[in-house]
């Protein structure tokens, strides 16, 4: 696995010259997850020299030099292409899960020098070099164009069936590790219809008789495959022996898988047939990630016996994420597909805008962060039955009735009047507050001690939370109840809840203009009450808040400026430097587009940094210094 | 030493995660016949803002943050264990969640009961260490002794602590008070102070000095007959 990680890291900074063909067509149509790294985009933002000198680059070269016992000084000495796309994918089958990496090659001689330095033998077939590595449970294969690394281990469940196990020369009797496992006939299950029998579509067949048809006759056998498939019964077979057989079978499957990838031609069924995957194919993205539809993931992690309950993610399609590194921004866009019914429900729920009056209370200059949401409560309550529909499998009927019942029982219009569904949380600043605590006074006469209350100064966050309510009567009643119970005080229209062991600050409540305000600063609440509050919202923040159903903003610089050194301990200066040098962070919902709903995360690149990649590399270096 | 004592770990973690202050008070009264009372207090009140915040979280730095019911349960468990021990009676425990103060007190028939109790508790939590502090009272000589040895296990645990966590111990205080019916005629530890009525001795030090081995808390107290 370490090797896989090393190669994935390598793939991020891989040869300068080659314009290799894109390798996406080599990825099976039924892959579970696919990640890609677009080296060409990366090297528009940095140079080989800069990568070599970065903390990440140094660590990578050091680890490769160590494992190959050679001295690598630059990533372009490794021979991989620094201009073509590299891929990682994961493929599930009933017998083995493959973890695979595809890296385009720029200079075969350099790659040969790198990979042949290992002690493992390399055999060659039709221009393909194959190195089987039993210790790492992996197979590395390469030709002039690309390198393919695959890693995996045969699943114990696959051999839990005694007839099948016997076919591979494995005897199950008395095996404490296998007998206890209930056989799982995944391929027979209708519930796994979300992925076809993987052994048929893309993966090599686990049946031994298919292996010779794909492994060339004159290819030397993998080094540890020294068992006889026909030997169906071995007296006294030990656990270790059975594991050894499984490992050997795994290596055969991995080798077979590798050779099939090299054989695979363009225009054969591949991941490129998946419309969801094709959404990630944005040439501007530096890296992409794609995961097959959520229902498949959810049901594949659910034990077979619970499968009948497992449709919780029904209606959600595939997930994808794309990373963009620009001059001024680093952006990560992630989205998930929705079926038409879910999309229609979400569209209704998202049909709400943030109350424009909220914007008057934002002071961008001193703001540390905010979070806003705007959803339509009435639509949400209305949509409950359809959101429930289909997700409980066997109990679907009952859940539908429950959903309908809930929708009848709840008066959605009345609920929506109390809580409309839009809210804004402002982390407005940090302030010093006097906090009391218990200590003891010792009588010098006897050293008897008595409880005493002392105070100390602490820096605490100030926040202001507001939500719209057309009918705040129930909220007022709750506050009145608090007064009755002597937990809440009322003074001139403002309700206050004092600090306690559970809550380190005072909370003040105000209801005004159809908005319920909850805040820590009495000064702010009083100013809001009298109409003298002076907000000062920036254009960017105004746009963020008014255009999105969800938004989040964080300004590390304001936080850094407000933090007192005394409360951060020794690491204060480093932390302050890290926060002070960081750009703003935003998160917004993308709304529903083409049946996808998603979130955009943006980090502003500070002016003094050349671009997002340089900023990212520097951040990693600074975080390393924090330890 | 700390890793297998859930209650101490829970409380210690709370203090450690931010540079917080807390006090540990050991208050022992020894009567003429060697029987007496002991009260242990753990006061986290100075750090209550941070603790209140911490208790809202499920885990921090990979350690699970114990909830109020969990802390209460551990305290009750500790009290229940004490009640079963030989020579120990009148066990009471109290946890004040408004100020984050935990106290446990009990009566003992003889100072050796405390040593026995400590040993049993350490065994219970599978802590293999020589008892760091032992108490003895010689009725004939009217002499009370607290022996304290800085054990190699504590030294080892201390050296493994992160600098950030050691900082916390610098801000925490350890207070030890011994009270007697008779007047104290002399005491060996010069870092301790004598009460004006000459019937009590108090020693106050940063917990850091105790754990790092810098301070000595052993004391031989001679009482007038």
Number of helices of chain B: 7
Structural class of chain A: alpha+beta
> How helix-rich are the residues of chain A, as a percent range?
25-40%
Strand residue percentage of chain A:
25-35%
Shape of chain B: globular
How would you portray this structure in words?
The complex is a heterodimer of chains A (627) and B (225). Chain A is of the alpha+beta class and 627 residues long. Chain A has a 20-stranded antiparallel beta sheet, sandwiched between helices. Chain A is globular, with a radius of gyration of 31 Å. Residues 1-5, 12-20 and 175-234 of chain A have low confidence and may be disordered. Helices cover 33% and strands 33% of the residues of chain B. In chain B, a hairpin with a 4-residue loop joins strand 7 (133-138) and strand 8 (143-148). Chain B has seven helices and 13 strands. A seven-stranded mixed beta sheet of chain B has the order 5-6-2-1-9-12-11. In chain B, strands 7-8-13-10 form a four-stranded antiparallel beta sheet. Chain B has a two-stranded antiparallel ribbon with strand order 3-4. The model of chain B is unreliable at 1-19 (pLDDT under 50). By secondary structure, chain B is an alpha+beta fold. At the A-B interface, strand 12 and strand 13 of A face helix 2 and helix 6 of B.
How is the secondary structure organized here?
The complex is a heterodimer of chains A (627) and B (225).
Chain A: H1 2-11, E1 33-38, H2 39-45, H3 48-53, H4 55-68, E2 85-92, E3 97-104, H5 108-115, E4 122-125, E5 128-133, E6 138-142, E7 146-151, H6 162-167, H7 198-201, H8 211-214, H9 239-263, H10 275-278, E8 287-291, H11 294-300, E9 316-325, E10 329-338, H12 340-349, E11 369-374, H13 377-388, H14 396-409, H15 412-418, E12 422-442, E13 449-468, H16 473-484, E14 488-491, E15 494-497, E16 507-512, E17 515-519, H17 522-530, H18 539-547, E18 550-554, H19 556-562, H20 572-580, E19 585-593, E20 596-604, H21 612-626
Antiparallel strand pairs in A: 1-2, 1-8, 2-3, 3-7, 4-5, 5-6, 6-7, 8-9, 9-10, 10-20, 11-12, 11-18, 12-13, 13-17, 14-15, 15-16, 16-17, 18-19, 19-20
Helix pairs in contact in A: 12-13, 13-14, 13-15, 19-20
Chain B: H1 6-16, E1 23-30, E2 36-43, H2 48-56, E3 59-60, E4 63-64, H3 68-83, E5 88-96, E6 101-108, H4 111-124, E7 133-138, E8 143-148, H5 152-160, H6 163-171, E9 173-180, E10 184-187, E11 193-194, E12 200-206, H7 207-212, E13 219-223
